[in-house]
Amino acid sequence: MTIKIRPLKKEDKAALLLILKNTPEFTPDEVIIAEEVVDGSLDKPETSGYFSLGAETETGAFAGFISYGLIPLTQSSWDLYWLAVDRKQQGKGTGTALLKAAEEQIIKAGGKMSFIETSSREQYGKTRHFYITNDYVEICNIADFYAPGDGKIVYRKKLAC
Ligand SMILES: CC(C)(COP(=O)(O)OP(=O)(O)OC[C@H]1O[C@@H](n2cnc3c(N)ncnc32)[C@H](O)[C@@H]1OP(=O)(O)O)[C@@H](O)C(=O)NCCC(=O)NCCS
C-alpha cells in the first residue's frame, strides 16, 4: 500500500474526528484534548506550538494523523502528542510512516529528542510494541499515574547527538 504523508488540512477534520471517536483506546476526554491540539496546529501552528501531519491512501482516503510540538521551555526536546490510524488501515505501515515523517520535521527544526507517553493498560500493549519497534526506549514508568492500575510510560528516541 502506498501512503502519502502531508501537512494536515482543515478539510481533514471530519475524517480525523471520526478516527478519534472510533479508536477504542481513546476516552471521550482524550478525544476533546486531541481535537484542541489538532485545532491549534490547523489555526496557528507557530503560536500554538502544535504541528500535525496527515496520511492519505492511494485512493485519497484520510488514514491517520500525528500531532507534535516543541516542549515549552526546552531547546530541542519535542513531544509526540497524538497519533492515530484508521482501524481499517492499522498494521499496514501508516503509523510508522507518520512517525518517521514527524521525526524528519522535528530534526529539520533542530530537535534532538522526541518523547511519547502512553498508558500501561493492557489495551495499549500493541501501541507500546509499536513504539519499541520504532526505536523508542522506555525511560520512565509511573505506576497509578492516570488512575489506580493505570500507569504512565514515557518513551524517548534520540534523534541527533
Ligand atoms: C499505534 C498505531 C498508531 C500504529 O499505527 P499502525 O499503522 O497500526 O502501525 P504500523 O502498521 O506502522 O506498525 C505496525 C506495528 O505496530 C504494531 N501495532 C500497534 N498497533 C497495532 C494495531 N492496532 N494493529 C496492528 N498492528 C499494530 C504491530 O504490532 C506492528 O509491529 P510488528 O511489525 O512488529 O508486527 C495505531 O495502531 C493506532 O492508531 N492505535 C490506536 C491509537 C493509539 O494507540 N495511538 C497512540 C497513542 S497516542
Question: What do you see in this structure?
Answer:
By secondary structure, the chain is α+β, with helices and mostly antiparallel strands. The chain has helices at residues 13-21, 28-43, 45-48, 94-108, 125-133, and strands at residues 3-7, 51-57, 62-70, 77-85, 113-119, 137-147, 150-158. It has one domain (3-158): Aminopeptidase. Strands 1-2-3-4-5-7-6 form a seven-stranded mixed β-sheet, with helices on both faces. Strand 6 (137-147) and strand 7 form a beta hairpin. It is globular and about 40 Å long. The structure holds coenzyme A. Coenzyme A (COA) binds at residues 23, 25, 82-85, 90-96, 118, 126-127, 129-130, 133.
Keywords summarizing the entry:
alpha+beta; 161 residues; binds coenzyme A; Aminopeptidase; seven-stranded mixed sheet; 7 strands
Short summary of the structure?
The chain is of the alpha+beta class and 161 residues long. The protein has 5 helices and 7 strands; from the N terminus they run E-H-H-H-E-E-E-H-E-H-E-E.
Q: What is the CATH architecture annotation?
A: 3-Layer(aba) Sandwich
- How many domains? 1
Radius of gyration: 15 Å
CATH superfamily: Gcn5-related N-acetyltransferase (GNAT)
Number of helices: 5
Ligand names: coenzyme A
